[in-house]
Design a protein that fits this description.
Elements (H helix, E strand, L loop, with lengths): L2 H26 L5 H16 L8 H30 L3 H6 L4 H9 L2 H22 L6 H20 L6 H17 L8 H27 L9 H28 L1
Helix pairs in contact: 1-2, 1-5, 1-6, 2-3, 2-8, 3-6, 7-8, 8-9, 9-10
Amino acid sequence: MSSMLDHVVAQLLTIQVRLLACRERLAADTDSEALHDLRTSLRRLRSLLRPLRGLPGVEQLEDAAKSLGTLTTPLRDREVLAAELIGRGLAEAGQRRLEGRARTFASVAGSPQLTRLLAILDAFPLFLRAADREGLADGLGRRIDKRLDKQWRKVRKALDDPAHDRHRLRLLIKRARYGDEAYPQLEHAGKKLQRLLKKAQGDLGDWHDRLQWLLQAQEHADLAPCKIDWEQALHQAERKSDGTLDALLAALKRR
């Protein structure tokens, strides 16, 4: 196997171990970060897989990861909102959104989505080795490098658009950041650029959270006390993210 394929298999095994640990933590409801850690492992898996498209088994594994992400997104969003409300002293409203957490965690741990993902992930290295024997993985490093470079070009183009869509930018930046972390040997981003990516992702995440909470406040009366603060925080997050995105674009132009 090529060194790049060795790297991919090693990353897959690491992610598999983390997902298995998250499953047990969720089943036993050991801590509040289990769902977050599961989703972080999912994100790392999808970032590892994206440049591998075209190899046998990748489409099925990506589909399984996407299905689990779809299942867990609203659950994690509810957790984040609950923490925000409790932090603001609205403990009753926050705790309502955490009711049945143990059952929810257990349902994720035993879900068909997670079971399917782990089964496919367990067999996937065999597909990669078979693909390598058939010559389908020849030039894999160059292929991955080219596809990651394409992701960076998309980020720069979006940043250069005065009418850029913050939602789309947030996703593009996440993909570039985690893609670089998945394949650090390709050195697409140095430490400074990685810091800017992380900050941009965080700023846009703050903006996105406030926007979603304000939308929910239109339907849930117990969120009304937060509306003014969230509106102010939304505008602050917009201004802050604009500054970070300008710095990120400048860094990409020097790259």
